[in-house]
Amino acid sequence: MGQEGVKELNDFLHNLKINFSPNLILLFGSRARNEYLKESDYDFIIVSEKFEGVHFLKRIEQVLLFWTINQDVDILPYTPEEFEKKKHEIGIVKEALKHGVVVASKS
């Protein structure tokens, strides 16, 4: 990723912090493992209280408003309660916690 890409990624994370006050932003997948190709997508889990009462697909839509990088992205937006439940289940969230990189956290 070039300098422009780094700036766009930082802008994206900054906008998430301002608009969603996330408890956690976790990068996972090939980019977190540093095993990505130039065309690899980004994978993020975002945990925010601001997702309360918002349909899951609408949350993704809201987050994507701030994505300006010319690369695919997968967003998994959870409320803190949903995340607490998911992290104990077998699946993506549990794996992401094992191998992902925390890029922002309230704690």
From TrEMBL:
GO terms for molecular function: AMPylase activity. It comes from the Archaea. Its EC number is 2.7.7.108. It catalyses: O-(5'-adenylyl)-L-tyrosyl-[protein] + ATP = O-[5'-(adenylyl-(5'->3')-adenylyl)]-L-tyrosyl-[protein] + diphosphate; L-tyrosyl-[protein] + ATP = O-(5'-adenylyl)-L-tyrosyl-[protein] + diphosphate. Residues 19-97 form the Polymerase nucleotidyl transferase domain. It is an enzyme of class 2 (transferase). This is protein adenylyltransferase. It comes from Methanobacterium veterum. The lineage of its organism: Archaea, Methanobacteriati, Methanobacteriota, Methanomada group, Methanobacteria.
